[in-house]
Every structure is written in C-alpha cells, then in structure tokens.
Design brief:
With about 160 residues, the protein is mainly β. It folds into two domains: about 100 residues, Jelly Rolls; about 50 residues, no CATH class. Helix content is about 0%, strand content about 55%. It is built from no helices and 15 strands. It has a six-stranded antiparallel beta sheet with strand order 2-3-4-11-6-9, with no helix packed on it. The chain has a five-stranded antiparallel beta sheet with strand order 1-14-13-15-12, with no helix packed on it. Strand 3 and strand 4 form a beta hairpin.
Length: about 160
C-alpha cells in the first residue's frame, strides 16, 4: 500500500529557535509530544543558529538555492545541492547562507528509536518514503519489500531502520 501526502496534508510550524518556519511533511509522534521520526522542508531566508534537538540524529540536504556554510564547533562544512549531511541534534551549528535564501530537506530520527538513511536516487527498493521535489509530494510505502523505479525524475529516498 502507498500513502500519498501533498500540500493539504502538510503542517507549517515555527522553528524551535524562533528563526523561521518549517513545513512538516511527516511526523511519527512519541509519548511526550515530541517525535520519533520527522520529515520536513524549510525555507531559510537568513543566517542563524540551528535549533537544538537532543537525542535526535539529522540528515540535511539542499533542495533549492546556492547552499550554505555550516559552522560547527571544530569545523566548517559547505552544503550544496546533491549532498546529504549527517549530524546530531545536540551539535551547536551556525548557518551562513551562500547567495541568498534556500529550501532545505530534513530527516530527523530519535537516536534510541531508529536510524535513517537518505539518498537522492531513481531506484527506491526497500524505501519507506520517497519525496518528489518537483511536485512536492511525499510517498509512504507500507511494504518494505516494495521496489520503485522513477525513470524520469530523481526522488529523495528515505530508509528507516528501527532499533
């Protein structure tokens, strides 16, 4: 079975740090009102710090825009389209935009619950989710044995492995 989520199913919410707004595409809630899995996209219009999410592992990629410089405590990363960056939600990170605003895509998983793998691909064998960037549609696959090929467009494939 395939579930399809589009704009009317998504929820906009302010960033935890108050610096912007996220469009939440999918959330698997936990018992305390937080989440175990969250898939979202956000328009980033200004430089600033990332929100603090203790116990959460994050995967981030750029959908639109020139990218950003991410300032970690001991290093700097340049994040451009086509690359997935992984980091923990506890890590203090400051974002500096390159050439203006951008739209990012974020997969967050509670470290004690699951791990997430995120790829930009046309073949989604075994994926639980696929995000089509052009139509802004998220697909959830109920059967982990599903084999999906998108011959015309690449999608963002998301594989969740429960611990």
């Amino acid at each position: 079975m395939v579930k399809r989520f589009s704009a009317e199913d998504f929820t906009e919410m302010p960033w935890k740090n108050g610096g912007g707004v996220t469009t939440e595409l999918f959330r698997l809630p936990d018992a305390q009102g937080g989440f175990l899995i969250r898939i979202s996209r956000a328009k980033v219009e200004k430089d600033g710090p990332f929100s603090f999410f203790p116990g959460i592992d994050r995967k981030l990629l750029i959908l639109q825009g020139e990218g950003c410089r991410l300032l970690f405590p001991n290093k700097e990363e340049i994040l451009l389209q086509g690359r997935v960056l992984e980091f923990t939600g506890e890590t203090p990170i400051d974002c500096r935009l390159i050439g203006g605003s951008l739209i990012d895509f974020n997969v967050m998983s509670a470290r004690n619950y699951a791990t997430a793998k995120v790829l930009i691909t046309k073949n989604l064998t075994g994926a639980q989710f696929a995000y089509h960037t052009r139509s802004e549609t998220l697909y959830q696959f109920e059967n982990e044995e599903v084999k999906v090929d998108f011959p015309e467009d690449e999608h963002i494939g998301i594989w969740i492995t429960k611990k």
